[in-house]
Amino acid sequence: MFKKISQLLKGDPHRRKIEELVVTVDEINALEGQFEKLTDAQLKEKTSEYRQRLKNGETLDSLLPEAYATVREASKRVLGQRHYDVQLICGINLHQGAISELRTGEGKTLSATLPLYLNALEGKGTHLITVNDYLARRDGRWMGAIYHFLGLSVGVLQAITAVEGSPRAYIYDPNERSLIEDQNFLRQTSRQQAYLADITYGTNSEFGFDYLRDNIAMQWNQRVQRGHNFAIIDEVDNILIDEARTPLIISGPAHEDSENYNRMAQIVKALNPEDYEVGEKERMVSLTEIGLAHVEDMLGMELSDPERPEDVTPEQARMMGFLEQALRAQHLFHRNKEYIVQSGEVIIVDEFTGRMMPGRRWSDGLHQAVEAKEGVKVQAENITHATITIQNYFRMYDKLSGMTGTALTEKEEFYRIYGLDVLPIPSNLEYKAERGDAGLKAEETKDEDGYKYTYYYEDDDASKAPLFYKRKDYPDVIYRTTEGKVRAIVMEIIRYHVIGRPQLVGTTSVESSERLSERLAPELIRRMLQINLIKSAWLKAKGAKVEDYLDAPELAGLNEPLDQLRMTELRRLGREYGLTSMDLNDESNRQALLESLYLDENDWERLQPLFDGGVPHQVLNARKHTEESLIIAGAGAFGAVTIATNMAGRGVDIKLGGELDEALLSRVNQVLAKYSPEDPYNMTMPERLKAVRNLQVKLEEEEEQAALDTFIKYMEDMAKVRELGGLHVIGSERHEARRIDNQLRGRAGRQGDPGSSRFYLSLEDELMRMFGGEQLENMLSRFKIDENMPIEMNMINKMVEQAQTRVEGSNYDVRKHLLEYDDVLNSQRNRIYQERDKIFTKEDLHEDVTEMLRSELTSRVEAALTDAEGPWKLLAYLEEIQPSINTDFGSYPSFTFQAVMDKLDEANDVETLKNGILKLAKQAVEVENEHVKANAEELFDHSELTLKNQIAEREDTLDAYLDSLDPDDRHDYQAELGAIFGSSVKLGPKEMQMLQENPRSMQKTLVEGLRSSLTLNIARRLLLTLERRFAENWQIKPADLANLPYSELRAQLSEQVQGSLDRRIERLFGDNQEVARDLENNQDLMEEALEDSDALLKLLLNTTQGTHIGFDERTHRRELRKHSRLNYLFSIVDEIGTLSSEDLTAQILEHLGNAEERLAEIFGTHEWSQLQLNELKLSGLPETTRQAISSELGENLWQTVENQVIAEIDDDLAERIQTVMGSQTQNRIYRDLLLRTITESWVEYLTKMEALRVSISMESYAQRDPLVQYKRQASTMFTELFSEVRQGVISKMFRYRPVKPGEANVDNASTQQKQKSKTKKKRRRH
């Protein structure tokens, strides 16, 4: 037998591959008799045996023949279905990590059970990917019976629903029953359990989204997937080619910020011209200092610290973001230019074409800012939390395979991108015929229209009566116009529907399906048939034949769209060519109608109802997968007409006569196996029908008879449809991909059924217009071919296929190029997700955080010591990341306060301590005052330069303006000069007359006014800024400064600055002695501070804060407010600058290390107090904490204290336990902090990368390779991402504090005080 196949396979590489696989198939077949003898229990035990053999060192490949024989036998017993040899070939190829191209109806679903079972034996999980939920549910329930019989578990994933609110998952359970048929045998379970099953069915989207959800989860136990071991993708061409670039995106609203956008829009509209500067060329808007102050007044909050403008809080940064976009929206984006407002929405206008671009939105909050400016509803801004393309997700699997009916045309892409070979597998019928020993032979002949086709007959049948068929693929038919093509399609639909032949009409879009459906309505059907009557009458009158029909000018009006044709004109034409009536029911028209549709008299009864009812049909598209799959299964019923997009209902076979339930077929096989001596599993459907009719026994169960009766009825219906030619597929347009056309064709001719396909094209189709349609149209026009006349030309067919090949190649090049971009983000995503996994799995994260701290501080200290302002910024940064810790469970100073405390270390009495604090406080204020004066001088210098530049620029503009004035033109001088001045200008009648008559006569006056106006603006900004900085109202007005030379203006303001600084010194350290008085009022605290570091820290903190009486404008009441009095960092900044970077770094790291340890102690003390407060025991602690304590104490001692009352534990032992508890709590905090920081930073990074992807295309205009530039910038951005993560962690790691416990009873309170007293630090003395 093998030799015969070898001769047939010849040199085709695909056939050589099948030849190799046939050897294994023969091994499996040889085992069939042996496995049939096993009992159910013995067959089930095989699974455990195989798993043990794997553990002992055998491979999956060595187990394959036995495993496949096991699955085949199990399928026969529980489903009544036996795997054919071609299904075994398919299964072996899938196991080897390749794509099996198996035609529709050849049993891909059953084939997949073989490799899924084999690979599931490893215990790593195997996945079957489907295109929709219905197929996942159907196949999981259907094939689940095999796996369950063999002891394997099956999970089924289902999409989220609006009602349930979360993704669903099921486990196959034969004991589970549901009122919903397609949920029988499915027991709802968690997502984790579905993935822990040996085999999991689900859609590509569900697997991909679960991967993304896992990688934004904040707890390890929230993750559901367990790796990517082996997957089989059903309809692999659809998923890995058509949807390859589809991004799976988990997104959410950044914030509900409509209020902030609206608020900022109102604030920006209220600003004065001097509050901002617009750079039209740079497309930038910036606030002036006076503008910033104005905005802060309206907001009621500071947006930056004047002393440290580079250090802003997250909330300040967020509000500045709203402000910046509001400024851009107000001054750079103009209505009816960059956008229009239509139906309450802001729609972008393309700057090059002027076309509206609905659906497009500006990013980074700009679109929301424009919406707020225009007063329309502010739409929520979404951000991407996680994303991956289908293509990149499936490339992660260790082993990947796929199956489909159409893959060969995309073999290069499959191999280059996924490393997958494609193997086309013959149908079962072809395979059996090729073997030569199956009793079948092929015969090629012609039908009544002269078209060749192939059928199969029994070897011993001398009459060669057809038993099975190959599908007839008729040549494409081409029409000049789309209208002519659609009319021909409708006529064919009518004809085949009338005779009862089922039809599937494929379209390339949902819109095309709906348009074609409209043409089957009664009115348009009548109009079509009436046109046919007129043409028939014309042919008869002219004595012409249909095939001789040429372009007839007198009938040109009939080619107009049907809905534009008028009955009066049709009646006129009808009468002209001998028609007595246009009524389709009229007896005189019957014969002509039947002849035009190639029908006979017996068909009139089915044709007539169409006149008033139209053609009954179903319209499907690719939106509602579940409903489509159910409907398309019935598309093979008698007279059925189904219009569908080419991709609709993939994965569901169309069976002649309608759907035959697989469970029913299984039941019939089981009945035959029980009562018939023949093997039902190797029978064809006709053989099975013959066997059922030949049964001469009394059936034991009524259910058995009902199954046989239903089967006979189904086969009779199928026979009727077979006699008519089976399913006919009509393609309404060629798709740009050949495999999509082949997929549509493949719906017909299933498993040897008769069937046919034909594509209808027009020269107006997109593919034809792109590739040679114009030349062909010119040729047909010269020959005066009517647009309704069909043309069959092999040349055109070849031209179309060549065009498809070119488009396929072009699309592949695009996808391949985009993949290179994707690979950049893909590798970065893998790196980020690996880092998250390490954080989850690493036991102790203290070293990782410490290393982040060391790396960040080393670089910052080195930079600080090379910059004059560096020491100030460094101390401010340290104060920001590690402020002083002050809790009920302990305290610890910031770096600045620790340095100040060290200076007070020698104080032995209250007086010495007081004087030391006063000295340091006064020193800090004096140094700060010098710093403030220096900043004020810088501000004056900057303002002077700004004023000079503005005067020079505006004078030039004024000069040009005066030159341009024409006495004969009318002008709004005040408005025009106001635009130049940047403020309102008022002119008297005399001055305006002078401008009208002699503009230059006003030049000196206008220049003086301009300088005065600009100086006034500068004076306002300076005055408002300085008054705000010193929190004082100076007795000086901007108008008093406007006419002064800038040097005098500066001198007066400098005098005011010095006065404010002197008053500050006097208030704090003069006769009033504000700081000294506060110290004297805290005499007890000062005495305690001599011995206790915590008390000293509290004392110093008190000196930095003052109080004053303020007025609340909302309540109209006076209130006591706190204000910052002084900052001690100014007292140590000079000393910092004298240290080497190594010494300073070591000093800072030592301090922060102690802060970290102190926080751990505080957490431990807090945890201990909580145990006491709630009367809990150590056994109730988290498992990781219990294990850490056990490791510290030893197993024996741990068992002693594990369930002991907390209060009874020895103090020394309690301190050791608290240390461990604190360290564990801190470790959990670090884990959460690291995860959140990485996740948040990654979310922001995705937004930046999308912006980079959009902008990088402009690089090509600069003669640079966009891909190279993209990779370079992405690499830099990714390095910066890790720096941002490091900074984010450091900024928060010292800010966690224990939650204050609830009120405790006296005993607990005293215990807490006892714990607190134990943790107090003695002051160090040197």
- Count of beta strands: 30
Structural class: alpha/beta
Strand line-up in the sheet with most strands: 5-4-3-6-2-7-15-1-16
Radius of gyration: 43 Å
Rounded average pLDDT: 85
* Total helical elements: 52
How much of the residues is beta strand, in percent? 5-15%
The unreliable regions are 1-9, 1301-1326
- Main beta sheet strand tally, sense and closure: 9 strands, mixed
Distance between the termini: 100 Å
Shape: flat
Q: Helicity level, as a percent range?
A: 55-70%
Task: Pick out its properties.
1326 residues; nine-stranded mixed sheet; 30 strands
Structure description:
The structure is a single chain. 36% of the residues are buried. The N and C termini lie far apart (100 Å). Helix 4 runs antiparallel to helix 5, helix 7 crosses helix 8 and helix 37 (910-964) packs antiparallel against helix 40. Strands 5-4-3-6-2-7-15-1-16 form a 9-stranded mixed sheet. Strands 20, 21, 22, 23, 24, 25 and 26 form a 7-stranded parallel sheet that branches. A 3-stranded antiparallel sheet has the order 11-12-13, covered by helices on one side. The longest helix is centred in the last third of the chain and has 55 residues, at 910-964. With 1326 residues, the protein is of the alpha/beta class. It contains 52 helices and 30 strands. A hairpin with a 2-residue loop joins strand 27 (885-887) and strand 28.
Please outline what is shown here.
The protein is an alpha/beta fold and 1326 residues long.
